């Protein structure tokens, strides 16, 4: 039997996609019970600020939580927080939790998100080695924020660089260790990598690329240094590891749902089971703009799939089909990214990333715009979102020409 | 608390109590006002929280910064009185303000 004795929609996960699904289920006219199961102790909140303003202490949890607690009560959404779903029984249509509840579902939404990729080197379990994924992690990292403190960041991706910027503002000595030969190597052109390396070095961050961590050294079970295997030990008081995330797909897989780099869903977030839907970081979904399947780690994806899933659970088709976009805040720089640059054949620069603090890089594939990285350049970002959706074939010379307004670049 | 009214494109009105220090975007999303998506949560990164502010209220708001101005310039349905609601802080001076929303946010 269910915890309440009433059947309804069950949502596994309590992040951005789950929260959006509750809002959208109600606006789609669903009147039954909703139960949300989340393994953290707090209601759904935004993760992007965790490595930005929230880490900096500029905003509190009240500005990070998505809805006030009373919203869920008013929406007849039962929150089971601090609770983990451990099994989906598709035949009985139930979800079991770690505290012994068995919930009946009419429809099930899997919005389990992702977890940090852990570093598997000697000393990984020393005190002072942290990851950044949830609000609790932030408090632990902040406890080390003392001026002059020495911090090592493992991984020169968005999380690592955002944390570096905040730590520097707090007066810490910061070293970033990146395995690849440049930062952000997975996601941007070398032009953008070189820009961020220049900015962080100017701010006093010690960025070491081609630098692989082989172990952590410690004393009294506390981390004291990071071993880069080349005879160097980087001394430190604490470490933050940011080397990517892994989708939480195990529950789906154990239930026999199709999983292939994410839970496989269609454009309406439907899984291979007609009563089970999935949304957010944990999904592998088709993207009509790029005509390929994607697994995205982004808020936009979580929100839009949350909306689509709510509609689909109500029997309505509202396919999710958008140009992906992302952002990153570091120092006074707002990086806005639209599209996906994988497979680009030409990168076109607009502005001067060697000397200035604003510029854009357009990514073309056989002349067609597929992505943009825009630093403090909203016009380039906003116009590109439209042009990418249109598969616009653009003249690289016009894109690079700053005398041509972004609204005019597509004109022949 | 400051009373703020959001008017949907179809004319439906939502009057909410907004706390000082909140943004108009937060006052909307935390009170279930539909039509303000605010995907980025207020980072001025997405332009999905556009509203229209009646002329007589314009002087009571802080002026737009360059980032907001240029984001708005490229929004669908932008008008002279468009603002991004995530950039507007609620103050007692806004008591009774009525803002309207576009048909959809992109």
Number of alpha- plus pi-helical segments of chain A: 9
Low-confidence sequence ranges of chain B: none
The CATH superfamily of chain B is: Beta-grasp domain
- What is the count of distinct domains of chain B? 1
CATH superfamily of the largest domain in chain A: FAD/NAD(P)-binding domain
How far apart lie the N and C ends of chain A? 66 Å
| Strand content range of chain B | 15-25%
CATH class placement of the largest domain in chain A: Alpha Beta
The helix content of chain B, as a percent range, equals 10-25%
Structural class of chain A: alpha/beta
Q: Mean pLDDT of chain B, nearest integer?
A: 92
Spatial sequence of strands, sheet with the most strands of chain B: 2-1-5
C-alpha geometry of chain B: globular
Largest interface, counted with CB-CB under 8 A?
A-B, 29 and 22 residues
Number of domains of chain A: 3
Radius of gyration of chain A: 23 Å
Biggest sheet layout of chain A: 7 strands, mixed
**Level-1 CATH class name of chain B:** Alpha Beta
Short description:
Chain A has 412 residues and is an alpha/beta fold. Chain A is built from nine helices and 25 strands. In chain A, strand 5 and strand 6 form a beta hairpin.
How would you describe this protein?
The complex is a heterodimer of chains A (412) and B (106). Chain A is an alpha/beta fold. Chain A folds into 3 domains: 177 residues, FAD/NAD(P)-binding domain, CATH 3.50.50; 113 residues, 3-Layer(bba) Sandwich (FAD/NAD(P)-binding domain); 77 residues, Enolase-like, domain 1, CATH 3.30.390.30. In chain A, 21% of the residues lie in helices and 29% in strands. Chain A has 9 helices and 25 strands. In chain A, a hairpin with a 5-residue loop joins strand 13 and strand 14. In chain A, helix 1 packs parallel to helix 7. The N and C termini of chain A lie far apart (66 Å). The model of chain A has no long low-confidence stretch (mean pLDDT 96). Chain B has one domain: Beta-grasp domain (Ubiquitin-like (UB roll), Roll), CATH 3.10.20. Chain B is 17% helix and 21% strand. Chain B contains 3 helices and 5 strands. In chain B, strands 2-1-5 form a 3-stranded mixed β-sheet. In chain B, strand 1 and strand 2 form a beta hairpin. The longest helix of chain B has 8 residues. Chain B is globular and about 30 Å long. The mean pLDDT of chain B is 92. The chains are: A alpha/beta (412), B alpha+beta (106).
């Amino acid at each position: 039997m269910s915890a309440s004795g009433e059947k309804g929609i069950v949502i596994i996960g309590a992040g951005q996609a789950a929260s959006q699904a509750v809002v959208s289920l109600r606006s789609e006219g669903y009147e039954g019970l909703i139960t949300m199961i989340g393994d953290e102790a707090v209601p759904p909140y935004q993760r992007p600020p965790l490595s930005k303003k929230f880490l900096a202490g500029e905003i509190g949890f009240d500005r990070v939580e998505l809805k006030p607690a009373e919203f869920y009560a008013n929406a007849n959404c039962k929150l089971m927080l601090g609770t983990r779903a451990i099994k989906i029984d598709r035949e009985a249509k139930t979800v079991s939790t770690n505290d012994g509840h068995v919930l009946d579902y009419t429809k099930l939404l899997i919005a389990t998100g992702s977890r940090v990729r852990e570093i598997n080197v000697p000393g990984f379990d020393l005190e002072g080695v942290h990851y950044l994924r949830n609000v609790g992690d932030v408090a632990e990292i902040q406890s080390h924020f003392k001026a002059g403190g020495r911090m090592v960041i493992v991984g020169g991706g968005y999380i690592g660089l955002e944390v570096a910027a905040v730590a520097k503002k707090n007066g810490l000595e910061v070293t970033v260790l990146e395995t690849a030969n440049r930062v952000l190597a997975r996601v941007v052109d070398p032009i953008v990598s070189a820009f961020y390396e220049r900015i962080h070095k100017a701010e006093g961050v010690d960025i070491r690329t081609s630098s692989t961590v082989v172990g952590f050294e410690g004393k009294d079970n506390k981390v004291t240094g990071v071993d880069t295997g080349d005879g160097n030990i980087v001394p430190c008081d604490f470490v933050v590891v940011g080397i990517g995330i892994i989708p939480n797909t195990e529950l789906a897989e154990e239930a026999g749902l199709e999983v292939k780099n994410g839970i496989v869903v269609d454009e309406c977030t439907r899984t291979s089971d007609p009563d089970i839907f999935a949304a957010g970081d944990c999904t592998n979904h088709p993207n009509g703009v790029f005509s390929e399947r994607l697994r995205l780690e982004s808020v936009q994806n979580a929100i839009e799939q949350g909306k689509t899933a709510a509609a689909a659970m109500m029997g309505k088709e509202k396919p999710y089909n958008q140009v992906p976009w992302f952002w990153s805040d570091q120092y006074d720089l707002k990086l806005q990214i639209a599209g996906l640059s994988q497979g680009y054949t030409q990168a076109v620069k607009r502005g001067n990333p060697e000397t200035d603090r604003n510029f854009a890089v357009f990514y073309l594939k056989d002349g067609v715009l597929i992505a943009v990285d825009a630093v403090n350049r909203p016009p380039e970002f906003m116009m590109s979102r439209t042009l990418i959706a249109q598969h616009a074939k653009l003249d690289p010379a016009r894109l690079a020409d700053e005398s041509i307004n972004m609204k005019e670049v597509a004109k022949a | 608390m400051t009373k703020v009214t959001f008017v949907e494109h179809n004319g439906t009105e939502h009057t909410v109590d907004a706390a000082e220090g909140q943004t108009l975007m937060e006052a909307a999303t935390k009170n279930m006002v539909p039509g303000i998506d605010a995907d980025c949560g207020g980072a001025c990164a997405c332009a999905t929280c556009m509203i229209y502010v009646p002329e007589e209220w314009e002087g009571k708001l802080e002026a737009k910064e360059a980032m907001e101005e240029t984001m708005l310039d490229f929004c669908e349905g932008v008008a002279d009185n468009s603002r991004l609601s995530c950039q507007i802080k609620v103050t007692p001076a806004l008591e009774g303000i009525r803002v309207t929303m576009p048909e959809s946010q992109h």
